[in-house]
Amino acid sequence: MKHKRGWQKHAGIFFLLLMGFLIGSLTVNSETTTYDFDYQTDATGQYLTNGTAQGDTYNYKYGQAPGVAFDEESYVNYADEAYLKKSVKEAAGQGLFDVTLAVKGNQTSTPVDLVMVIDYSSSMTGEKLTNALLGLQQFGNELADSLANGSIRIGIVAYNREIYTTNGFSTDIAYLEQFLRETAETHSGTFMQKGLLAGQQLLLEESRPEAEKLFIHIGDDSANRSYLPADDATVYQNTGAIRDYNGYHTESYVESFQTSATAYHTTSKNSSDSQAIPVSSTVVTDETLGTIVALKKSGFTYYSVATAPSARGEYIGRNLASAPSNYLTTDENLSGLGSALTEIANHIDKTIPDGTITDPMGEGILLQGSGKFDADQYQLVGWRKNAQGEWVEAQEVATGVTVSEKNQTITVSGVALGENEKLTLTYQVRLNTEAPDFKGETWVLCNGRTTLIPASGDEALDFPIPSIKAPSVSLAVLKKWVNVSAAEIPDQIDYQVKRTTTTAADSWQQSDRLTLEKANDFQASFTKLPVAGQMADLPKYNNQGEDFVYWVEEVNVPDGFESSVTTEGDTLVITNTKKETEPSTTEPSTTEPSTTESSTTEPSSTEPSTTEPSTSESSTTESSTTEPSTTEPSMIESNTKESSTMTQNSTKPNSTEISTLPSKGKQLPKTNEQAADWLVGLGVMIVGIAGLLVFKKK
C-alpha cells in the first residue's frame, strides 16, 4: 500500500511538470509577431548564434540566418509592417564604434474612407481659409501614394448654420480644395451637432463596406446651436460615457433628437430667427455630447483637431476623440493644421504610425555623450526612395522624431514610417576597458534588449544585438644582474606592474606584488595579473582609446644595488647593478719609536721623509729619504748589534691602498665632495707634523 501511494505521488508530480511544460510551450508559441534571436555565451564572450565577425565587430547574418523572414534589402521582416536592422562597425579612432539602427515602414493594406467635418463659420476667410487649404494639401501629400492607388478616399462636410458636403468620397485633392474654395460658404452659427450627424451619414451611406472608417473634426468645438431632444428620448445618467474636463460635468444626456424639426436651441439671446429657442450653453453642450456618445457606438475612429479651443470647447472636443492621443490642437488661424493632419495621416496609412524605440547600452559599454546626449552625439536621418528606387535623404521623414537619453538608455519617439520611408540613428560607443572585470578579446553585446513599438499598445519588436571586443596585451619581464657574484644573487625578487594614462576613477594603477625566481631564470610572461586579489586582463588602450603605458618596478631593492628598467623588444628588463665602492678616509696612526742598542751603542734614528733625512751612525750606509705616505711617519730603530744605515732608494716606498667595501646607504659623490677630501688630507699632514715636534721636545 505504501509503494502504491508513492507511485501515485510521483505520477502526480510528473503530471504537473508535464502540464507546466505544455502550458509554457503554448505561451512561447503564442508570441508569433516578434523574433527571439539566439545568442551564444562561451569562453569567447556573448554573441549572436547566426552572426559573422569582422575585426573587433560581430553582426547578425542579415538575409541568411535561418528561421527569420527578410525583405529584399535583408532587413528583418515583421509581417510586412516593420523592417529592422541593427549593426556595428569600427569608427575612426582606436576603440571607437558606430552603432546604427535602421527602421523601415510600409503602407497599410486595409482601405480607408475618411470624412473631414470642418467648422466653416463666418471667420473661415482670408488667412484662416488659406491655412485650411494648405493643411489639406499637406495632408494630401502625406497620403499621396495611398490616394493614388485608391486605398484611401476622403470626403468633406463643411458646416455653420448650414451643411455643405462633397459628392461622396474622392481621391483627388484638387477637387477637395475646389469644394472648400468655391462650394462651401461661410455663415454665422456653429451647429456642430448638425455637422457631426452629416459626417456620420456620409460614412454610413457612401463608404466601402470593407474600408476602415475615420472621422476627423476640425473646429473650436464651441457649439452654439443644437437640436431639440426627441419627445420619447431616453434620458441616460452619465456614469462615465462623458468624461469631465476643465471643471465641466454632464449629469445626464439623451441620444435621440428632432433632426427634421425647424426649431432648434441656441445660446444667442438676441436671435432674430423665430425658430431659435434661447437656452444656456450648458444645454447646447450636453445635447451635443449626447450625439457624440451615440456616434461613437458606430465603431468609427474619431479625431478632434481643436482650433484654439475655450475650456468648454476642449470639454466637447476631448470627448469626441476616440482616445486621448486622438485629440490635437492648433492655433486659431489654422497655421498648424498641416502638422496636425500629418500626424493623423501617419496613423492612417503608415504601418509605423507613432513608433517608439528603446535602446539600452549593454553591460560594459560606454555610450559616448551619455548625460549630455544632444544632436552632436548622434546622427538622425530620414530617407525616402525616389522614382529609381534609390534611397535619398528626406529630412521631413525625421520631422517630429525626438531622441533622448537617460542612464545610458536611448529613447526614440514619434517614429512615423510608411511605404518607401526609412529612419536611421547612428551613435558611438566604447568598451569599458578600465573596468576591473574587463576581458580582452572577448565579445560583449553592444546593447540590452532593443525594441520598436510601432504604436501605443502594440507588441514590442526586437532588433538583433551586435557585439564588439577590444584587444589585450601580454607582458614579458626579465631580471639581470651586473657586477654581482653568483653567491650574492638572491633566490627571488619582488616587483609590481604599473600603468599610466588611466581615465576612470576606479581604474587600477598598480598590481599586487609579483615574484621573479632564480629557478625560472628570473623571467616571466603573462596576460593577466592580480589586482586587489582578483586576476585582471591587460587591455591595450583606455576608455578614450589611448594606449596604456605599462612598466615594472622592483620592490625592496637590496642595499648596495641600483635598479633600473629598460625595454628590449617586447620585454621589460629589470637590471640590478652593484654600486662601485668609493675610497674611505682612515684616521692616521702614530707609532711610538723603539730604541735598540747597537753594537757600537750609537742609536740609529729614522727621520720622517718629509723633514730631515734619517741618519744611522753605522759604517758606510748612506741615509735614505722616504716619501711621505698617508699615514704618520714612524720612527723605527735598528734591532741588530751592528749599526745599519738606511739608504735612499731610487723608488718611493709603496703607499698603503685602501679597499672600498660596500657600505650601507652609500650614495654617489655629491657636488664639492672632492674638495672636502683634499681638506681632510691637509688636516692629517698638519696633525702629523705637530706630533713629530712634540716627540722631539721630549
From TrEMBL:
Membrane-traversing stretches: 678-695
Keywords for the protein's UniProt record, in alphabetical order: Cell wall, Membrane, Peptidoglycan-anchor, Secreted, Signal, Transmembrane, Transmembrane helix
Pfam families hit by this protein: Cna_B, GBS104-like_Ig, Gram_pos_anchor, VWA
Signal peptide segment: none
Keyword Cell inner membrane: no
Region (Disordered): 561-669
Highest taxon in the source lineage: Bacteria
All copies of domain Gram-positive cocci surface proteins LPxTG, residue ranges: 668-698
Amino acid composition bias (Polar residues), ranges on this chain: 563-576, 636-662
Coiled coil: none
Keyword Acetylation: no
Domain VWFA: start-end pairs: 113-348
Extent of Low complexity compositional bias: 583-634
Protein name, as recorded: von Willebrand factor type A domain protein
